[in-house]
Amino acid sequence: MSASMSVLEHIRRVKTPLIVLEFVFVAAFVAELYYLRDKGAFEPRRAEMIALMLPLLGFFICFFPLCYYAWFHEPLGARVRFLRLLFFSALLLVCALCWFNMFDLALSFSP
User: Fold this and answer.
1) Grouped pLDDT means (10 residues each) for the chain, 111 residues
2) I need a labelling partner for 84 at 20 to 30 A (CA). Which of 53, 78, 91, 93 fits?
3) pTM (2 decimals)?
4) Residue 62 near residue 18 (C-beta atoms within 8 A)
5) Strands, E, within the chain: which ranges?
């Protein structure tokens, strides 16, 4: 069994909990948005900024394995698989860089 097949098999086993967690993180983010709408303008501190980003981070952590499974669970030709893997890697890299920049920005807020 190849390494990618074992990864796909593992993702297939935990697919349902990942989907449930995605919905939980979306609900938490919606609750945060309603909380911020009712609160009005405020200046968040460092811990508040990080706490506000955690549901979105959790969503993306659950999203990427599901995305990988959806794109690679069926047999593909070598070229198509390479192009999908290249696009998936680029998407993952851009997302990781954005998250790194957002956490860096959150850490620059006053404590």
Assistant:
1) 75 93 93 82 78 89 92 88 92 90 78 65
2) 53
3) 0.77
4) yes
5) none
